[in-house]
């Protein structure tokens, strides 16, 4: 949240920071006090891991993609609204985060249908999200495997984007490893 003196709630000025650094700060502010389901782990750890997967495992270093990965849950899981996000991060990042956000009144099926026509960057972030969720508490694994199978299908093998294909391969291998093990 931007304060009157140009700083955010934590007191750090946002000027001079990269887009993904501003996104990390915003995500940390909005997820403050929340924990990952079934754990005492601060929730901000999840979006940070998603961004790390996008960068380090899938090989995408686009700052806007990393920013959207860091913010992928703010509309769905926090008090952040679309106008606030758009003003803070711009239209591309806020649109990508909207693609990744479930409509509270919408069906899960409709959500997955929308993701199939989303930009490749959004689908790659969703695959990183699914991959990270596979490392959560064991009691959630069956449901998360189901979601991961839907996410891997977002990487249609006919897509020419190599980073999307890399994400699909990595997520597919992890699903296979967990199903065999």
Automatic annotation (TrEMBL):
Taxonomy, superkingdom: Bacteria
Gene3D superfamilies (alphabetical): Hypothetical protein af1432 (1.10.3210.10)
InterPro entries: MESH1 (IPR052194)
Name of the protein in question: HD domain-containing protein
Taxonomic source organism: Luteolibacter arcticus
Lineage, highest ranks first: Bacteria, Pseudomonadati, Verrucomicrobiota, Verrucomicrobiia, Verrucomicrobiales
């Amino acid at each position: 949240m931007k304060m009157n003196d140009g700083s955010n709630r934590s007191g750090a000025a946002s000027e001079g920071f990269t887009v993904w650094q501003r996104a990390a700060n915003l995500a940390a502010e909005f997820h403050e006090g929340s924990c990952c389901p079934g754990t005492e782990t601060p929730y901000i750890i999840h979006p940070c891991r998603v961004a790390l997967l996008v960068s380090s495992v899938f090989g995408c270093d686009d700052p806007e993609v990393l920013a959207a990965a860091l913010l992928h849950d703010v509309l769905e899981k926090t008090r952040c609204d679309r106008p606030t996000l758009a003003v803070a991060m711009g239209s591309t990042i806020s649109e990508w985060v909207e693609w990744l956000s479930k409509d509270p009144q919408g069906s899960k099926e409709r959500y997955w249908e929308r993701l199939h026509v989303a930009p490749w960057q959004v689908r790659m972030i969703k695959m990183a999200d699914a991959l990270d969720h596979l490392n959560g508490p064991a009691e959630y694994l069956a449901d998360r495997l189901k979601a991961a199978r839907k996410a891997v299908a977002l990487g249609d093998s006919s897509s020419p984007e190599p980073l999307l294909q890399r994400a699909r391969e990595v997520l597919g291998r992890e699903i296979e490893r967990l199903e065999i093990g």
